[in-house]
Amino acid sequence: MSGRVLERIAVARGRRLRAGPTRWGAIAMVCMGVSGCANLVGQVTSGLATDLSEAILDSNDPAVVRDGAPAYLIMLDALLRRGADNADLLRAAASLNGAYSTAFVTDEARRQAFADKALDLALRAACVDIAWMCQVRTLPFEDLERRVAAMGIRDVPAAYALATAWAGWIDARSNDYRAVADLGRVRPIMARVLELDETYDNGGPHLYMGVFESVLPPSVGGRPEVARDHFERTIAIAGGKHLLARVFYAENYARQVFDRELHDRLLREVLETDIRAPGLTLMNAIAQERARELLASADDYF
Fold first, then answer.
1. Burial (Cβ within 10 Å: 0-12, 13-18, ≥19) of residue 51
2. Could you tell me the CA-to-CA distances from 198 to 15, 86, 203, 214 in Å, in that order?
3. Span 257-269, pLDDT tens digits
4. What sections of the chain are H helices per DSSP?
């Protein structure tokens, strides 16, 4: 999954409040002595974080995002000083930190540091929204399964954000068997999200489950045919506009089963499709970059 999981950029869509200098000044004046001010500021900061995430998702220039994202991350750190218990803001910060590291950071130590931060933020957000998730890493597995099964539709944003950040943390430590073992805790959470809302984040739960099912070869537990179904379902849910799903389909499934015809067809479709789509433009641009790399190396692989 290295460098591939820009899905984590996606955050729960909340109330959109745009905050400029004038609005900040007005809020400071109105809030003096007024109860509920903390909640109002929390709504504004959550809206700003969501707007930033959406602006990044809709960019068609990965280089601009790579160069500009660190400033956004610092700003989110500043916002969190006043909104440490704001679940929406914590999720946005987790998603952006995780996405930046997997997409643009190549140094292993820095990538792991970003993954640590993203997981910590996602855990804090989940703990705010779902009390038992404060112990999600230490609960006996049977208790974890029981509590996951009881989650409802309202828990989807928190559970999805946690599962994606946790998957990124595992990916950053793919050579550590103790970290990889955590996949056993992440998988049931994502599977439950899929049961509750398979369309969430343009079919993101199916995309992740497809990756989970294809990480290992069949000889040691991988299920490539199940992965194929998940990738195809992601493509269908997004109306063919989720180009990263086709890239994963080619790289994780077609290469594993040595289907060169399917591999090349999927990647050519990625390159022939307009990358512009609400909430998907940036990841589609990155998908096209990866598609070119995979096609260039296909002769050596097959």
1. middle
2. 23, 26, 6, 19
3. 999 999 999 999 9
4. 21-30, 37-57, 62-80, 87-104, 108-129, 141-149, 156-172, 177-180, 183-196, 200-214, 224-237, 243-248, 260-272, 281-296, 298-301
Amino acid making up residue 140: P
Phi-psi region of 144 (alpha: psi -120 to 50; beta: other; left: phi over 0): alpha
Determine the Cα–Cα distance for residues 224 and 11; give it in Å rounded to an integer.
Answer: 29
What does the block give as tokens for 21? 């200098």
Q: Please report, as a single letter, which amino acid is at residue 226.
A: V
Which pTM value belongs to this model? 0.83
- Give the separation between CA 167 and CA 95, rounded to whole angstroms: 12
Phi, psi angle pair for 257, to nearest 5°: -95, 5
Tokens coding 258: 């040595």
Low-confidence stretches of the chain (pLDDT < 50) are 1-41
